[in-house]
Structures are given as C-alpha cells and as structure tokens.
Amino acid sequence: MTPQAPAAGVARRAAETAARHSYGKLVAFLSRRTRDVAAAQDAMSAAFEAALQQWPLQGVPASPEAWLMAVAKRQAIDAQRRTATSDAATDDLLLLTPVSTDDKDDTSRAIPDDRLALLFACAHPAIERNVRAPLMLQTVLGLDAAAIASAFLVPPTTMGQRLARAKAKIKQAGIPFRLPDREDLPERLDTVLDAIYAAFTQGWSDPAGLDPRHHNLSDEGIWLGQLVAALLPNEPEALGMLALMLHAHARRGARRDASGAYIPLAQQDPALWDTALIDEAERLLHQASALHAIGRFQLEAAVQSAHVIHRFTGHTDWAAVAQLYGALAELTGSPVVEINRAVAVAECEGAARGLQILDSVADDPRLVSYQPYWAARAHLLARSGARDAADAAYAQAIGLELDSAVRQYLQQQRNGLQPS
Amino acid sequence: MQYMLMIYASEDAENAMPPAEMGAIMQAYGAYTEALTKAGVLRAGERLRPTADATSVRVRNGKSEVLNGPYADTQEQLGGYYVIDVPDLDTALQWAARCPSSVYGTIEVRPIWEM
User: Fold this and answer.
1) DSSP state for residue A270 in the 8-state scheme
2) A interface mutation test: which of B4, B90, B94, B109 has the most A CBs within 10 A?
3) Residues of chain A numbered 145-204 and touching chain B (CB < 8 Å)
4) Strand, helix or coil at A401?
5) A272-276, long-range: CB within 8 Å, 24+ apart, which pairs?
6) CB spacing of A172 vs B111 below 8 angstroms
7) Which residues of B fall within a CB distance of 8 Å from A174?
8) Of A320 and A280, more confident
C-alpha cells in the first residue's frame, strides 16, 4: 500500500460527499448568475476533477463546498471570457463569495441556496413538458444523462439532446432563475410539482428494481419533494405531494411477493408497510390542511390516507375514498380520476354503479390505450357476472400493460373468471 | 433582454366585430402602448395592414418571383408587433398577456438575436 492511498480514499470520499450535498446548490448558484446551466455544470465537473487531484496531496479543505465553488467560479469566468466579452454576469460572479480557495473566511460565508429558483427554471412552461423532470434530476441532483435516459425509457443520445436543447432554451429565451411573482406562483408551482411527481412515478415501472439497466427514481423524487417542501413550507400542495409520495413509498415492500408477483393494495400485508413514512405523510397532510387551500395532490394523498385506515380497521373506508375522488374529479376534470372513483363507488354501491361511471368517460379517446381503464372495467364486469365482456376487457388490459408482474396478475384474474 | 411580441389574431373575426367592440379594443391598445412607454420598456411597435395588402417575394435561380398575399395562409395572421426590453422571459410573458389581442388571439414572444 502506498502512503497516498489512505489520503486518496479520504479525499475521494470527501469529494463524493461534497458532490452529493453541494452539486445542486453550486450549479444553481452559478446558473442563476450566468443564466447558463450547461456552463455551470461544466464548471462544476472541472471543480470536482480538480478536487480529486488536489485534495489527496494538499488535504481536504475546511469547507469543501466553498473550495469547489471558488474553483467552479473561476472556471465559469474563464469559459465566459473565452466565448464572449465580459458582461454583467461575469462582474457579478467576481463580486460574489467565496473569493479564493484559501480564503480563510470562506467557511463562515454561506453560499445562498438557489435550488428553488433552478427548479422553477427547469419546470418553466416554456420548457417541453417531457424534459422538465429529467432536467431537474440532472441539474439539481447531478444524475448523469444515461441514468436518466434509462429511467425514462429513451435512448441516451435522445435524452442528451433533449437536455441540451432545454438548457439552450433557458439561456436564449431568458427564462428567469427566480421565484415567480405571487400571481403566477400557484400555476408555476404546479409545473414544478408535476415534474417532481413524474420523476417519482417513473421508478414504478420496475418497483422491485429487478432490471439493473432501469434506474429507479423514487428516492430522487422524494428527495426533490422534500427540498421543495422545506423551501416552501407554507405551500399546501408541496406538502400534499410529498405526503402522497411518502404514502406510496411506504407500501413499496408490500407491492410484490418474494417471487416478484404483483399484489394489489386490497391484498397487501399492512405489516410490510413502512409506518415511519406513513406517520410522516400523515403529519404533512395535517400541516397542509391547516393552510386551507385544497388541491390535487392533497386530495390524492388523502385517498392514500383513507387506504391506510385499512391497517387499523381491517377494511378500507371506500365511501370516504369515493368522496375524495369526487372532489378530485371536480377539481381536475380528469377521466383517470373518474376511473378510480368508479372502482371506489363500486365497492360501496355495487358494480353496476361503478360501470355507469366508467361508461360516462368511455368516449374519451385517451382511454382506449389506457391500461387502468380496461383493468377497472374488467374487474367491475367480472363482479357483475358479465363474463365474456370481462374476458375481452382483461385481454385489452393485458395487451396494454408494460410490467410483466402486473400482466401476470391480470392473466390470473382473467383465468379465474367464472363461466357465465 | 429584448423580445418581440408578435400579435396573431384572425382578421376575419376582427372584421366581423361590431364597431363598438373594435373601438374598445383600439382604446385598450392606446392604454397598453402608453403603459409600455411609461414603464420604459417599449423599443418599437407598429400595427400592420391586413394580409390582403401583403406581397411576398423570393429569388430563385437569380430570378425574383413576386407573389400576391402573405408568406403563409393561416387561421390567425400577424397583425402587429412590439419590441420590448425587459429583464427576463417571465416579464415579457406578463406584458404579452396584457396585450389586448391576447384574449382572442395569440401573442408569440421571441427573443431578439443579440449581435
């Protein structure tokens, strides 16, 4: 073992820790001042590279974050000087702390947290919807484009191009790095929350993490949700979304059996649910409801909360669930919500009532290729004894499902249909 | 940053408007232009004659072809523009939303290519 080895290990770990904790903060700080996210990321990569070279020789600095910031800032300024004349952004950068890597005051000078501003820029309505979540994951969490591409089921080159285009748009169109004005905030916050939730649910197509090529993003989604909830503690929908994610995440261990087969919620073993996460979700939901502004995510979290009652009473309060979906349907006008409401209503008022609700949205062209619609339809048809119609609906649902475990579950349901 | 606000609206719909309604819109445009001026953001702005008065030209193989009408026949037509100088896209979008035609037409916001 060479004498450098332990020092190199310590330095590498320090760099990795700093990267995990500071990447988004430093990229946000630089982006906000240069409006150039791609350049900010390049500067950060260069800073981490320098850290890995220098820290093993010179020791880990007292404030790794400030050190990285100083190097990244120099990189950013140099890059800007190479491409253009010095402008306001460069001057701005020069004035800002920290000044140098050996500035003793650095540790006391906090780098402002601009990550919220960066999130709002990434989820700006001027950015294509399907790239908002990937952009957040790359810029705030430092995920590499290949991992993001695998989670979103697109080729890495395609994802790389989308991300590059979006960053160019931020720069060229002048998308701001700041909190939206009061009147725009609710709408803009919706786009941020939607994108975070999209990142979270992206992980679900492989909830067991069985496919090593498929990067599961649930943890990243929750991390971003916690960040927004911490930075905007008085926004009820931010709290509601985090509650929704935690509720769903709490049941991840119960959603599959040992062989990987899918278990629907009604048959899950509550002992496998994560009670700490459920408690945290319930606490957030209470905190949100005290702010008296109901919204989509709070209602969806409330539905999850009603399912959790199962744990204590042994049966789900379907009437409450149906009522919550009713409120959600009124708020969003979404046919997807109507599907969930139909299932809940069927539980308390009978399959025929549920089928009526499904019929009322059947004309929506989006539902033809929407698996949950056909699965719900098959389930309710089976319960009302319409065997042939149920069989056809199951076939449609199976044909549309991506997840093989869910496919298998639906196939079992289909095989179990009683002859009429 | 400078942005061009391009005002697209249906000429047919505007022609079909009762004079009182058109009058109200013109008044609103007067107030809007004044607000832009007072805010110190207005750089340029004009109303365009209808596309029926447009003539297009292109040169192919050294020969110029003159065509009657606008570049493209669309449902809504470019009817005017403003150039404004504001700090960022959100501010530009806020001004665009205040443009009187935004309630029945569409305002396209394009950054000016800085030279």
Assistant:
1) G
2) B90
3) 172-176, 178, 180-181, 184
4) coil
5) A273/A308, A273/A311, A274/A249, A274/A250, A275/A250
6) yes
7) 1, 3, 87-89, 92, 111
8) A280
**Which stretch of A86-95, A212-221, A231-240 has the lowest confidence by average pLDDT?**
A86-95
Q: Whole-model pTM?
A: 0.80
- Taking alpha carbons only, the member of A136, A178, A190 closest to residue A24 is A136
Q: Which of residues 117-146 of A touch B (CB under 8 A)?
A: 124, 126
And the tokens for A347?
A: 């539980």
pLDDT tens for each residue of A350-392:
999 999 999 999 988 888 888 899 999 999 999 999 999 999 9
Chain B residue numbers with beta carbons less than 8 Å from the beta carbon of A178 are: 88, 90
Looking at residue A12, what is its pLDDT?
81
Residue A6 banded pLDDT, cuts 50, 70, 90 = low
Q: Which two tokens stand for residue A339?
A: 């599907």
Structure tokens at A21: 């904790």
What is the sign, positive or negative, of the torsion defined by CA atoms of A333, A339, A345, A349?
Answer: positive
Residue of A nearest to B4 (CA): A173
CA distance linking residue B41 with residue B33, whole number of Å: 10
Q: What whole-number distance in Å separates Cα of residue A173 and Cα of residue A176?
A: 9
CB A68 within 8 A of CB A22: yes
**Number of helical H runs and strand E runs in chain B:** 3, 6
How close, in Å, is residue A170 to chain B by CA atoms?
Answer: 9
